[in-house]
Amino acid sequence: AIPPAAAAAIAAAAAAMGQTIGRAPLLPAPKHFVNLPKACIYELWEAFNDIAEGFGMTSDEFLEILRVCLKDYLEYSEKKLDNIAKAVFIIFDDDQNDLVDALEFLAAFAVISGMTPEEKTRYVFGIFDFDESGLLSVDEMILALRTTISGLTKLSAVDSPLESDIEHIAIQAFGDLKTIDGSMVTREKFLEFCATTPELVSWLEYFGDIDEFGVEVLNPSDKMATELVNHGARILPRAVEDFAAMDTDSGQMSKVAIEAKGLAINIKPSAPWQNTVSFTEPSVIPKKIPATAPDVHLDLDWVHGFNAKQARQNVDYSHKGEIVYPAGAVGVVLDVASKKQVFMNAHTDIILCMKVLAMPKKKQTLVVSGEAGKLAKVIVWNTGVLGKAPEVLKVLKGFHQDGVAHVGWAPDGEVIITVGSAGMHCVALYEWRTGAMVFSAQATEQPVLDTCWTRQDQFVTCGTNHMHIWTKTGKAYRRQRGLFGKKASAQAILCAKAFGEVVVSGAASGHLYVWEGRNCIRAVKAHSGAITALHVIGRMDDGSGEGAGPAAGGFEKPGGLCTGSTDGKIQLWSAELEVGACFDLASLGGVSKTVQSVNWDFANHKILIGSWSSEVFEMNDIEGFDINDGPVVQGHFEHRLFGLSVNPANGTEYVTVGEDKTVRIWDTETHTLKTMSVLDTMAHCVSWSPDGELLAVGLGYKPGGFGPGAKRQRKDGAFLILQRSDLTIVQEARDSKQLISSIKWSPDGGTLAVTSYDRAIYLYNVGDWASTAKCRGHKGRITGLDWSTDANFLQSTDDLGELIFWEADSGEQRTARTMRDIEWETQTCVYGWPLKSAWGQFDDSCALAASYRAHGGTVIATVDQFSRLRMWRYPCVADEPNWVEARGHGGPCSNVTFTIDDSFVITTGREDCCVFQWRYRMEGMPTDEAITEEEPVGSQLFDFIDHEKFARPEAVEAANADDRSKIFIMEERAAEEDFTPVRPWQRSVVAPSRPPPERLDEPVDGLRLEWVYGFPAQGGGG
Questions:
Q1: Arithmetic mean of pLDDT, 623-645
Q2: How many beta carbons lie within 10 A of that of residue 676, not counting itself?
Q3: Predicted confidence band of residue 222 (pLDDT cuts 50, 70, 90)
Q4: Given 280, 456, 958, 1017, which is the most exposed site by the fewest CB atoms within 10 A?
Q5: What is the pLDDT of residue 7?
Q6: Structural Rg of the chain based on CA atoms
Q7: Smallest Cα–Cα separation from 654: which of 638, 674, 634?
Q8: CA nearest 845: which of 241, 248, 258?
Q9: What integer pLDDT is reported at residue 547 of this predicted model?
């Protein structure tokens, strides 16, 4: 038995041996042999057995072993390898007897290799298990530790612990035995001892993650790859005011703090426009303008585009074959067959990442998505069960700040991984059903570009010049750096997937890297551009392929691999990574050739492809044809989106233009893109002519964009006139050299007004496009413009808060007092008397981005930088008015409009580049959804009819009764009590050039009732 005195000596020895901190400073020659893969280490052992004649190796034997095992791997010439090997031999031969201890060399090389700590200790046990019994005696145990530590100290010039100290540490492995004489330690006991003894653990870590030597660092030469890396590293900053306004749950305390400062009117100076509007109040206004919210409903009807530039690999299939993807702050589930979208709208900021877990056997699809924001949320939701809309299952928040960049499902579907956007890109693991965080750690300061699970107890993260392998050890996960070795170059790793027992990753150079453990064991040149997306399909035991399979984690038997790249190619691979079919995204007609997402549905022979240009295609995986004859999702994609206008001659059409240089005409009924044209310059604004035949497009770049090409354009300050039918250019002109910020046709269609960041308004005669006037007087860059109904006047606003009025004929400025009773064709200027209460009472940094008055004249819509769409009563001048609000865009909105019949509200996102179509209806109108299957059709309509159909207003009753006295009184009081704007058709009325003579007498024709069809069956009984 070990006496107490001996135990005390062992404890003292442990203290003397100490625990190492940091990374071992290897001598120059041994650095060439750090992080060798497992296969090379075992080859050294086999070569030693074949070549050496004993445990004392000569210089020739040492050199021969290294030549045989490492020459090809290191890719060194024989001369270079021999010189390095001789230097290492001298280091080991410290007694200069021309012999080195073979076990010392083999054990030391194993510890500085790229194997895992368990693999290293297993290897050391094996080379000292001389009789291969699986047991070590006390002497063998002491020899193993003493020899290994001796070799390591020689390679690093670190002082070696005393042999007595090492012996006492070794004896601890037998501490639970009554006597150590004749005792043996099993392999499992040895592994456990090395993994739990602090001194040995610290030495393994000290020599276990040494920086790679001689690895080439490769910077992306592909501009698109650089763009993707920059997007992966980008943080979307959110101020406290953004947090308070956008996050209606967590931001409440911040909102209270803002309101506690007091009213904005008391703590900040008035803007210039606020001083102006006091002179523009109409001389006749309604006596009472209610402060209540307007009686309207907004329902999200359709979304065009998706978050193509915010993330990659975010378009996937559900178990039913629906397409799931993020658009702004909304999760979209698209049924291509029925052409129907359903939405998950619980996020409060733009969705940065999304992963789908399709479970066909459970008939369920789970989705996890993460957002940007100061206190970013992670939401777990399903795509809908038994015909129901998507349902939020769990909301996780409180850990990540400034956004969640990546999420992923563990193979069992019970644990999710999240990776933060900022700082050290912290990693967190959650048991999502309970909301418990089971692990968290810092990852790296370098941008993390992807993450995936490899098995239930291991995941990887990858990014700029790194691959990290996280393996579960106890209740925590231990991070180890992936080793590029001689097979690969350190560069941006954009994506990674488990592929059976290995991991495949896509690099910026177009290579597929194959990882076994920590080591990159193979590099395959797969694409000419950066590999941006990977998808693995599984293989059943009978060898038959399975479709998307369980989307999380790896497969025991990979069936194949699909890769996408910035070169526009979609490449299929076998389970052995043999090249299969290759398809080109350009053959589908996409605007961009960069693939950002792939999903291979092998069972249905189709590939789901998401492109950088915000398009989603379905391609046949055998012949490569477009299954749907065009994209099933498409939208604007690059930089930012600003321009929006509706067709005044067609209630179903509207047009958008953006900094992606595209002009797009959309249809509200079919939810399709009807026409598109690509320009040679970024576009900022657009306006439709009153007859619907021409489009005016203002060109230019607004400073503040992100990405390549985000700079001033060659044609900044120009405008185009396009033919509606085919978007061909009718006229092009340029009188400014700065961005065209707004462009509007006069109501009569005779004049075009163009505003520029050069602080001027240019007026042109439609037809010959001659300049008729120029308005100057703004101190800031002009941001908004409206025409008066009679086309005689203009109002404009700028970014310094000015509101100025103009004569259209002369371009002269008018005083505000003289404009108080002018009727305006539109109200798109966000400054003015009709919107003076829409700016809020408090200094919350709210800035209205756009406004538009409904054609009915009683409601006005606004959008702001907090992603809010709000409906106000028009004019919005009551104290503390209420509103109807809807959200969906990820970040600032840029524009809003009503369709000509007020059926829809259209909004655009500045940064998400998505177009949202909202169904707009008045309160009380019955909808199809209100009629359930349990009740007879029409049963719910009776209550509506009984209460409202026959409750006519007094004015209607008077008109029906032909009460001339009441009609006369109403006409006299109309300007005061029945205040409504002029109807749209009235504004468009133009007298013919040769009008017929006017007659005031009654027509001579008469009418006689001849027959009646139907009767009021729903009006009541009897």
A1: 93
A2: 14
A3: confident
A4: 1017
A5: 41
A6: 37
A7: 674
A8: 241
A9: 39
With vertex at residue 440, the alpha carbon angle to CA 438 and CA 442, rounded to the nearest 5 degrees, is 170
Closest by alpha carbon to 327, among 630, 664, 641? 641
What does the pLDDT look like over 934-983, one tens digit per residue?
433 333 333 333 334 445 556 666 666 666 555 655 555 554 444 455 56
Specify the length of the chain in residues.
1022
Q: At residue 885, does pLDDT exceed 80? A: yes
Percent helix / strand / coil, the chain, rounded to 5: 25, 35, 45
Q: What are the Cα distances from residue 658, in Å, to 326, 683, 915?
A: 20, 5, 11
Two tokens, residue 299: 């329902």
| C-alpha closest to that of 320 among 364, 288, 286, 256 | 364
**Phi-psi domain of 645 (left: phi exceeds 0; alpha: psi -120 through 50; beta: other):** beta
Specify the residue for token string 């990159």.
520
Beta bridge partners of 40: none
For 523, the token pair is 């590099």
Give the 3-state secondary structure of 926-947: CCHHHCCCCCCCCHHHHHHHHH
Please give the Cα distance from 86 to 82 (Å, whole number): 6
Distance of CA 796 to the CA centre of its chain: 36
Determine the Cα angle at 422 with ends 420 and 425, to 5°: 50
Q: Which two tokens stand for residue 259?
A: 């309101």
Task: Show the tokens assigned to 720.
Answer: 């185009």
Distance set, CA 977 to CA 342, 960, 973 (Å): 43, 20, 6
Rounded to 10 degrees, what is the CA torsion of 979, 985, 671, 927?
50
Give me the residue label for tokens 């046990």: 125
Q: What is the mean pLDDT of the chain?
A: 85
Estimate the crossing angle of helix 138-156 against helix 78-92, to 10 degrees. 120
In this prediction, residues 148-177 reach a mean pLDDT of: 83
Phi, psi values for residue 942, rounded to 5°? -60, -45
How large a percentage of the chain has pLDDT more than 90? 57
CB proximity list for 588: less than 8 A, separation 6 or greater: 609, 617, 619, 626, 631
Q: What is the dihedral of CA 18, 23, 29, 32, to 10 degrees?
A: 130
Backbone phi, psi, residue 258, to 5°? -65, -45
> Look-up: residue for tokens 């497009």?
697
> To which H or E segment does residue 205 belong?
helix 198-206
Asked if residue 747 lies in contact with residue 987, where contact means CB atoms within 8 angstroms, the answer is yes
Q: Residues of the chain with pLDDT > 70: what percent?
A: 87
**CB count, 10 Å around CB of 589?**
12
- Each residue of 88-118: pLDDT tens digit? 999 999 888 899 999 999 999 999 998 888 8
Largest Cα–Cα distance of the chain, in whole Å? 133
pTM: 0.81
Distance CA(676)–CA(305), nearest Å, equals 14
* Backbone dihedral angles phi then psi of residue 265, each to the nearest 5 degrees: -65, -20
- pLDDT of res. 615: 95
- What does the pLDDT read at residue 748? 93
Q: Which helix (H) or strand (E) holds 381?
A: strand 377-382
Is 596's pLDDT higher than 80?
A: yes
Q: Above 50 in pLDDT, residue 889? A: yes
In the numeric block, the tokens 């056997």 are attached to 361
The residues, any chain, with a CB within 8 Å of residue 944's CB and separated by 6 or more, are 924, 926
Q: Is the dihedral of CA 778, 781, 783, 785 positive or negative?
A: positive
- CA 170/CA 433 separation, integer angstroms: 45
| List of residues 6+ apart from 119 with CB closer than 8 A | 38, 517
Contact call for residues 201 and 195 (beta carbons, < 8 A): yes
CB distance 240 to 401 below 8 Å: no
- In order, the DSSP letters of 893-922 are EEEEEE-TTSSEEEEEETTT--EEEEEEEE
Dihedral sign computed on CA atoms, order 828, 831, 834, 838 = positive
* CA distances for 783 relative to 55, 559, 743, 877, angstroms: 84, 56, 10, 22
